[in-house]
Each structure stands twice: as structure tokens, then as C-alpha cells.
Design a protein that fits this description.
Number of helices: 12
CATH architecture of the largest domain: 3-Layer(aba) Sandwich
Number of strands: 7
Bound molecules: glutamic acid
Low-confidence stretches: none
Shape: globular
Radius of gyration: 18 Å
CATH superfamily of the largest domain: DD-peptidase/beta-lactamase superfamily
Strand order of the largest sheet: 2-1-7-6-5
Structural class: alpha+beta
CATH class of the largest domain: Alpha Beta
Strand content: 5-15%
Length: about 300
Amino acid sequence: MGSKKELTQILEDSLKNNQNYYKQGELPNYIPTLAKADPKAVGISMVDVEGDFYSAGDFETNFTIQSVSKPLVLILAILDNGTELVFDKVGVEPTGDPFNSIIKLTGFAKPYNPMINAGAIAVTSMIKGKDNEEKFDRILKFFRRLAKNDELELDQETYLSEKDTGDRNRSLAYYMRDQDIIEGDIEEIVDLYFKQCSIKVNCIDLANMAVILANQGIDPVTEERIIPKKIARIVRTLMATCGMYDKSGSFAIEVGLAAKSGVGGGIMAEVPERFGIGVYGPTLDDKGNSIVGMRVLKELSEKLNLSIF
Ligand code: GLU
């Protein structure tokens, strides 16, 4: 596929070719701290299954993981409870609706999938631990292990900002408790969800996490199995079908990768048996996906023939 230098050049070119599209998106202001990001920032890291890294741009800039946390907490919830119990409470079908929609919750037995807020909150409610502190500690440690970065931490300001403005998420959670989909203290459940979304990462962290998925659950460097193969397959499939919200269909056509976006501007994508990718650009399209991030992935998919379809 070419030398390390060539691939790094391709990454640099794709950032340069797409950076200006940041103007077509907007910084999210419904979580006030996210609106403070530098709208022009753009970065990418790729790690291959041999453990070699390729990066360009602002790949070391920190941003909050937001919804990229959803597939990761899903893995932990399945490890804690088993596949059957988790999918008894949350479905596996795309919605075609916005990420925080309440529409398909009313009148249905369970949230459509774990990649939208309702489903993710239900998944978070299943994380085991004696109290919220222990539960969050388990999530953080799991993320650190996947990212191979012991320095991952909570962004306190974003967490407080989400807590302050998170009434839509509270509504989803209260409604789900009324419908017996979830149980327990709603303020604690959404608090844990706000915290998982507010963990700070960079592109390298996302690439490291994704390459484990790309390698079917095995850390390519240590060769340790981190995620059972079957769980890795379920999560990758849900990323491919629902990971880009109500743009998942066109993203599948244009890019063709299992990916998960977050309103912090990050996208985590995996190329089976080849690469983990983390890309960052904080302005978002109307669906909540990084504008530049998606464009960069499209260009790379075309140039490097990455689509799984
Ligand atoms: N914390 C955000 C929310 O719940 C996550 C949404 C996202 O990243 O798409 O609204």
C-alpha cells in the first residue's frame, strides 16, 4: 500500500483538501462548552494492525468523546449482563431519526438501537458497580485500556455543562423508566451518561480503540483478546448501520466503514483487518456528525479503497 511517508502524505493532503468545509457546519451550542472549540481544527490518526501509526494535523488536540462512548459502553454492558439481557431492553434497528429523538420511543417496547441517546442511556443504566463512582471508574478504566492511555480523564467543565442542559436526556430516561425499560435513580443514570460523554480523548486514542475492533477484539500489539469476537462483531455491525445517526445510510454509500460520531467533533472508524481511525473536526452537520471528519474519511476511503461494501 506504499510507505509510511506516502500514507502520512495522503493524510496531510486529505486534511488540506477538506479543512475549508468546516464553514458548512456549526459548533454545537446546546452543550455550551462545545461551542468554545476552534472551528478550524482538524486532525487524524490511523493505526494499522501491525501497530504502526500515521497522523496529521491536530491529532493531539483533546475533545470530549461524546457519543463515540456509546459503542464502548455497550461492550462493557454486554460483558456485564450478556447479550440477551441487553438486547431485551434495547433494539438493533436504525431509526432514521435524530440522535436525541423521543418520537420512536413513545409507543414502542424499547429504544431502537444503542447508538441513539435513548438506547445509550438504557445501556449505561446496565453498567454494574456498587455506586456511581465505581461505575464511572469502571467505564474510565475500560476506555483507558482500549485507548492504551492511562491519562484519559473527565472534562469537568463539559460534564457540568451537560448536566446543566441535559433535560432532553432526562426526559428520555424518565419516560423509559415509566415504560419499565430501565430502573433505578434517573438522576444517577443520566449523571453517569453525562460523565461517559465528557471523557477527553484525541485522535490517537480513538484510532487505538478502533483498531481493536478492526482486529476483531484483539489488541494487535499485545495480541491480548480485549473484546470477545462475537461482541466485537455486534458492536461493529451497529456502528455500520446506526453509528452516524440519520446519515448512516449515505455514509455507508459514500465512505463504507463502521464508524461512530460524537458531537464533540470526533469520529471513530474501523477498517476490518487493516486500520483503526480517529478523526476530529468540531463543526457539525445538521445531524450532529463532524463535517470535515466525514469528508476526510470519504477521501481516504476512495484513495485507499477502504469501503467494506
Ligand atoms: N452528550 C451528548 C448528548 O447526549 C451526546 C450526543 C452526541 O455525541 O451525538 O446530547
